[in-house]
């Protein structure tokens, strides 16, 4: 028999208890038996010891076992290796279910012959086969031949990737995958020099470039999906493989993209580059650095304990008590002076804390101040073993003192310093500056930023705000990333507008002694951000024209780019 149908007894009603049914299927020599289930519901058990199907590759009870099946998940298509198959259905005396329905047929592996016609690969399927192609090729419309395609496997140390037909319009319905593979311990850097795809770089549901680092056989790290006309950021792989996939739909076509790539050995990947503390990979080399409280040795790899006065200007980092994680020494006086970007506040989070305890922290302790010296506003004094809550300064500076006496020593502390955007800014007659994020100029702003600054002048003064640089994600209604400015201390005051894109907003003057500057970003695209200058102006210095529309000032701000 070449084809037929099998069902459990009484199907589709519940099968009977204490049954044993055996089917022996044979097809002509040279063929295989294929079995496809249409429905499957047999009493479930992890080891299928109650009700089950026993399927074997041959007619004998001791023929090679293909599998034992039960439960409610329909088995995948099953094939024998010969022209015979044995199926045994067994039920016990308790639970009954609906059973199964299946079709058997003779199956021939067309891919085993030489006349399947596939140029590259033949994939056998029940009742037929299909052809597929190697990376860098695509299947011809005849379903058999393979033709050159965009994409492919690249193992060169450097090179160029372009969309199909670049710089002409790329074709519709195109799928291209490039996989750049570097030697082990190398990283790949990809830099786009031209980018013009359909879309607005939000959903990228039409045409897109998808970039991922390949970290293992199936694990990937997504760098982003890009479309529109904005150049994607420079991307460096996390491993030695980078996958770039280009897709176009069946409608709008653009000029596409061009990108250059190069590979560089990550010296830090082996033994931390020989650095005692921190290794940072650079193009063609690497550099060692030390944790706070240590200085780099003359050999440029080891770290030695530094002095006990620390001036910290990096937006993010760690600090430690002397000798941490060993006990701190006695009679030690140390200070940390933190300074970050104007418009951002220092935040200190302690991860470990263990000092000599005392009710008033008279002996060993740390003390924090909201400014540049111990004469500034007092933020707190801490000792003992209880980890302090996160401490946030009111402005962009913080001063910390560590003191130990001559007796008890403990492990000390380990803390992380970061920055928090927003807060209060004091406007005076001296021009001051503010920035969208603490790493402005070094990297793009972060996603999901939520920042409010209140710029306050003295009563009887107005705040004059001038944006010097401005580059935010662009959108018609500024619904993604934006800056909005309100007159007064809250968003209930008049709004001067919501701003995004690359157009620098006009100068803004408050109608009272304060401005609220709000900065919001979504969870996708981030760009350079903004910088601004602000100054307090006495009301009598404001000069209005007769219509009251324009205001002129005796201040000028230099816009640096």
TrEMBL record:
UniProt entry tagged with the keyword Cytoplasm: no
Domain of life: Eukaryota
InterPro entries membership: BMP_1/tolloid-like, CUB_dom, EGF, EGF-like_Ca-bd_dom, EGF-type_Asp/Asn_hydroxyl_site, EGF_Ca-bd_CS, Sperma_CUB_dom_sf
Domain CUB: 1-107, 150-264, 308-420, 421-537
An example Gene Ontology molecular-function term: metalloendopeptidase activity
Keywords: Developmental protein, Disulfide bond, EGF-like domain, Glycoprotein, Hydrolase, Metal-binding, Repeat, Signal, Zinc, Zymogen
Residue span, EGF-like domain: 107-147, 264-304
A single GO BP: cell development
Short name of one Pfam family: CUB
Protein name according to UniProt: Bone morphogenetic protein 1
Organism: Halocaridina rubra
Organism taxonomic ancestry: Eukaryota, Metazoa, Ecdysozoa, Arthropoda, Crustacea
Gene: BMP1
């Amino acid at each position: 028999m070449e084809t037929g149908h099998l069902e459990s007894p009484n199907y589709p009603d519940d099968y009977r208890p204490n049954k044993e049914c055996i089917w022996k299927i044979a097809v002509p020599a040279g063929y295989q038996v294929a079995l496809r289930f249409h429905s499957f519901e047999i009493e479930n058990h992890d080891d299928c010891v109650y009700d089950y199907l026993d399927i074997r590759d041959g007619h004998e009870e001791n023929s090679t076992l293909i599998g034992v099946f039960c439960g409610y998940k329909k088995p995948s298509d099953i094939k024998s290796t010969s022209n015979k198959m044995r199926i045994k259905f067994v039920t016990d005396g308790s639970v009954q279910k609906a059973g199964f329905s299946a079709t058997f047929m003779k199956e021939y592996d067309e891919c085993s012959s030489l006349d399947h016609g596939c140029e590259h690969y033949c994939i056998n399927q029940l009742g037929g086969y299909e052809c597929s192609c190697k990376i860098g090729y695509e299947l011809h419309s005849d379903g058999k031949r393979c033709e050159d395609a965009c994409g492919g496997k690249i193992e060169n140390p450097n090179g160029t990737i372009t969309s199909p037909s670049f710089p002409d319009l790329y074709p519709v319905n195109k799928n291209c995958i490039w996989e750049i593979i570097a030697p082990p311990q190398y990283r790949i850097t990809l830099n786009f020099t031209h980018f013009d795809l359909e879309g607005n770089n939000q959903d990228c549901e039409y045409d897109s470039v998808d970039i991922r680092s390949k970290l293992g056989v199936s694990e990937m790290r997504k760098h982003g999906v890009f479309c529109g006309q904005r150049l994607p950021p420079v991307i460096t792989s996390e491993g030695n493989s980078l996958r770039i996939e280009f897709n176009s739909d069946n409608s709008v076509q653009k000029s596409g993209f061009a990108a250059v790539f190069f590979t560089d050995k990550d010296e830090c990947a082996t033994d931390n580059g020989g650095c005692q503390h921190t290794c940072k990979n650079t193009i063609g080399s690497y550099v060692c650095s030390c944790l706070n409280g240590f200085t780099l040795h003359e050999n440029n790899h080891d770290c030695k304990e530094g002095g006990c006065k620390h001036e910290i200007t990096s937006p993010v980092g760690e600090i430690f008590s002397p000798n941490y994680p060993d006990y701190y020494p006695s009679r030690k006086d140390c200070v940390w002076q933190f300074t970050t970007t104007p418009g951002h506040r220092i935040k200190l989070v302690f991860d470990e804390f263990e000092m000599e305890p005392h009710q008033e922290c008279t002996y060993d302790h740390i003390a924090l101040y909201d400014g540049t010296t111990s004469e500034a506003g007092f933020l707190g004094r801490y000792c003992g073993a209880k980890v302090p809550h996160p401490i946030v300064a009111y402005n962009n500076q913080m001063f910390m003192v560590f003191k130990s006496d001559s007796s008890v020593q403990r492990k000390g502390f380990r803390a992380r310093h970061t920055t928090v955007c927003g807060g209060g800014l004091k406007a005076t007659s001296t021009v001051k500056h503010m920035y969208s994020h603490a790493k402005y100029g070094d990297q793009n702003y972060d996603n999901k930023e939520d920042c409010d600054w209140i710029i306050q002048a003295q009563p009887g003064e107005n705040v004059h705000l001038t944006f010097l640089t401005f580059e935010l994600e662009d959108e018609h209604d500024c619904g993604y990333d934006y800056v909005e400015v309100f007159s007064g201390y809250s968003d209930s005051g008049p709004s001067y507008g919501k701003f995004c894109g690359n157009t620098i907003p006009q100068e803004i003057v408050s109608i009272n002694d304060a401005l609220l500057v709000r900065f919001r970003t979504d969870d996708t695209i981030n760009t350079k951000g903004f910088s601004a200058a602000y100054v307090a102006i006495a009301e009598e210095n404001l000069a209005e024209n007769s219509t009251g529309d324009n205001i002129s000032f005796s201040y000028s701000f230099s816009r640096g780019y």
